[in-house]
Backbone:
């Protein structure tokens, strides 16, 4: 029996189980269980890695033998669904044929005074850096405060053995009066770094506190009052102090990473921070503004490797999501990424963005994977390396590897809609439609305006033949996504609603006169039986080297085209292995 279980709280893998509240939690998910279902989970947790017979469970949980075994089977199935388990490849509950069940997930009891934050692998230290408060009278240095928090996050992410929550999840608490213990619980960390900045024309004062989420007490605090140009020294001291207080052993090169000088000019650094803020918003206007900030930073400091990598990232994002013609942005992306790595060969972001461009535009898979692996080695905590790498793995049909990378990214950035939505996309391409739909719904529960998740939820419904549901989701997503508008037209055609489909296509034609619209959008807008239009549009996308073209190797919506020699000839141009497909 696992000591400390019964009605006490415990960790089950990366879930927090609170029997007294009938609640299980894993950010951003919170599930409330029926009392009997919680009793079943607790009973299994009292016998970890032991085979428990059905009779034992019925006796101890239902306290009677006349309950049908089907009730137990349905209850186990419900637990599996809630805990994101797979009956074929169990990570939580294993079925032992003709005998019973075995709990295979790790069980960690929480004694009195234990932290209820989610457990980290091996009990490793963990931290989130919250956005710093702007104490300037005019509150006009918010970008600087946000940038300082992001810079510290990036520096600490290079420390092996330290789990660092990424920017998106940390900034989800910006402006909120949340208790640090609740933040720790939601993000699965043991410590929180928070602080404030007071900046004048020639001075900067930074005050920071490192807080233990178990009791809300300060572990360490510091105050730094320096000349405005000494912000790099402040970042060094804070990062090294945090690593020391968390008793993280700094391996070879780690201290150098913590002390890195990405800019020689404080004004260039200021512009870089402003660019990061714009880039995080991901709209075309903000991405282009971010590029202008990076360009001005490079004018002041031509050797600013991170600014070159920032331009490359913005160009890749613009090209990948179809906001600009690929030939207009990808060449500059690779040029800037190579400049960044020529200046700093160990820049994580440089390797990551070069790998992404090399994979999704050049289709040089071996070179791309080499840079992805190098980026992961240099900065394992940089979540977007894993997100971008998952696109290569998914297009290659290596779905389990892609899912593993995205699950690691979720650990680094549990509240990031992009990470969760990309997981939904991978599940869609691997034809796990129900799981893909659940994943998209979780994203929309976090952020109902996140159109990418709604778009893929619509695609799931369309692939399953549920065209009415597809139309409902795609109509909501189509306002800001041409891809969703094209898919909406196709779904309407499948319902025989040609007039509405024609109106959607007219809107696409109107958009294409003022902005770039991917040929894949027009392929999606065609009726499924209009093979000529679909193949012609897909061929144009191949000629453009569209960023999402590699996904056609695994896309369920092109399965009906795979017997066409013209389609197979296009797929062969990718140089990817043909994927054996099983029905969902």
Residues:
């Amino acid at each position: 029996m696992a000591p400390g279980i019964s009605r006490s709280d415990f960790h089950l893998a990366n879930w927090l189980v609170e029997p007294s509240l009938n609640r299980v939690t894993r950010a951003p998910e919170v599930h409330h269980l029926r009392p009997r279902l919680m009793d079943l989970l607790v009973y299994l947790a009292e016998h970890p890695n032991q085979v428990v017979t059905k009779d034992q469970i019925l006796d101890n949980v239902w306290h009677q033998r006349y309950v049908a075994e089907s009730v137990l089977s349905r209850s186990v199935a419900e637990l599996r669904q809630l805990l994101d388990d797979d009956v074929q490849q169990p990570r939580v509950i294993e079925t032992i044929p003709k005998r019973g069940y075995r709990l295979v997930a790790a069980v960690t009891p929480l004694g009195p005074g234990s932290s209820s934050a989610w457990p980290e692998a091996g009990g490793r230290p963990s931290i989130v850096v919250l956005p710093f408060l702007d104490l300037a009278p005019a509150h006009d240095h918010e970008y600087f405060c946000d940038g300082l928090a992001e810079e510290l996050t990036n520096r600490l992410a290079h420390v092996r053995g330290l789990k660092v929550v990424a920017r998106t999840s940390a900034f989800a608490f910006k402006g909120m009066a949340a208790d640090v213990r609740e933040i720790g619980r939601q993000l699965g960390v043991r410590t929180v770094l928070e602080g404030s900045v007071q900046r004048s024309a020639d001075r900067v004062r930074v005050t920071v506190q490192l807080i233990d989420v178990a009791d809300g007490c300060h572990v360490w605090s510091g105050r730094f009052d320096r000349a405005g140009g000494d912000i790099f020294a402040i970042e060094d001291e804070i990062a090294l102090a945090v690593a020391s207080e968390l008793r993280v052993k700094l391996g070879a090169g780690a201290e150098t990473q913590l002390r890195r000088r990405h800019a020689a000019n404080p004004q260039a650094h200021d512009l870089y921070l402003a660019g990061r803020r714009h880039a995080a918003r991901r709209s075309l206007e903000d991405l282009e503004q971010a590029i202008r900030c990076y360009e001005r930073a490079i004018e002041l400091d031509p050797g600013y490797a991170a600014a070159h990598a920032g331009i490359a990232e913005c160009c890749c994002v613009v090209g990948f999501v179809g906001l600009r013609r690929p030939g207009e942005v990808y060449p500059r992306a690779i040029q800037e990424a190579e400049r960044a790595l020529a200046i700093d060969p160990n820049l994580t972001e440089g390797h990551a963005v070069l790998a992404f461009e090399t994979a999704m535009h050049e289709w040089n898979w071996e070179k791309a994977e080499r840079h992805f692996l190098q980026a992961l080695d240099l900065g394992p905590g940089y979540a977007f390396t894993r997100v971008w790498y998952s696109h290569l793995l998914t297009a290659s049909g290596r779905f389990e590897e892609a899912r593993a990378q995205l699950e690691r990214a979720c650990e680094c950035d549990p509240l990031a809609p992009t990470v969760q939505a990309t997981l939904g996309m991978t599940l869609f391409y691997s034809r796990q439609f129900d799981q893909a739909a659940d994943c998209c719904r979780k994203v929309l529960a976090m952020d109902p305006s996140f159109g990418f998740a709604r778009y893929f939820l619509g695609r799931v419904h369309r692939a399953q033949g549920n065209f009415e549901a597809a139309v409902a989701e795609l109509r909501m997503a189509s306002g800001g996504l041409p891809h969703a508008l094209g898919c909406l037209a196709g779904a309407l055609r499948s319902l025989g609603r040609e007039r509405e489909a024609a109106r959607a296509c007219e809107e696409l034609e109107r958009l294409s006169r003022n902005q770039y619209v991917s040929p894949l959008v027009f392929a999606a807008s065609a009726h499924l039986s209009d093979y000529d239009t679909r193949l012609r549009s897909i061929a144009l996308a191949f000629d453009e080297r569209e960023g999402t073209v590699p996904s056609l190797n695994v896309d369920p919506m092109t399965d009906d085209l795979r017997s066409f020699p013209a389609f197979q000839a296009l797929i062969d141009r990718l140089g990817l292995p043909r994927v054996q497909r099983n029905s969902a």
About this structure: Residues 1-5, 112-122 have pLDDT under 50 and may be disordered. The longest strand covers residues 203-212. Residues 326-343 form the longest helix (18 residues).
